[in-house]
């Protein structure tokens, strides 16, 4: 069994068009590094200096990892990770 990772549409070009990929258990940052080995360029869009970029929201089983242990959050086989890029903007005054 592995960790299921949901990839947002803007990053799917890096995962050969896959919406869902699998990675190994361990820490969140190690999961990102392992995925980058399979899908080069993914880590630089998600992380920086072993930390998750602040404009990228990562959820472990629907819980924001910022409220857990951040990049050091442990992920186990069977867990589901969702990567959600932050969206900003709107209508100015």
Comma- or semicolon-separated keywords:
two-stranded antiparallel sheet; five-stranded mixed β-sheet; Ubiquitin-like (UB roll); alpha+beta
Structure, described:
With 93 residues, this protein is α+β, with helices and mostly antiparallel strands. The protein has one domain: Roll (Ubiquitin-like (UB roll)), CATH 3.10.20. The chain contains 2 helices and 9 strands; from the N terminus they run E-E-E-H-H-E-E-E-E-E-E. The strands form 3 sheets. Strands 2-1-9-6-7 form a 5-stranded mixed sheet, with helices on one face. The radius of gyration is 13 Å and the shape is globular. It starts with a strand and ends in an 8-residue tail after the last strand. The mean pLDDT is 92.
Assembly state of the chains shown: single chain
Calculate Rg over CA atoms.
13 Å
Beta-strand segment tally: 9
Number of domains: 1
Largest sheet: 5 strands, mixed
Measured as a percent range, the helix fraction is 10-25%
Structural classification: alpha+beta
On the 0-100 scale, what is the average pLDDT? 92
Any guess at the CATH architecture? Roll
CATH superfamily: Beta-grasp domain
Task: State the distance separating the first and last CA atoms.
Answer: 51 Å
Please tally the helical runs, counting DSSP H or I stretches of 4 or more residues.
Answer: 2
Question: Could you give the topology of this structure?
Answer:
Blueprint: E1 3-6, E2 20-23, E3 26-27, H1 28-38, H2 42-46, E4 47-48, E5 51-52, E6 56-60, E7 63-64, E8 74-75, E9 80-85
Parallel strand pairs: 1-9
Antiparallel strand pairs: 1-2, 3-8, 4-5, 6-7, 6-9
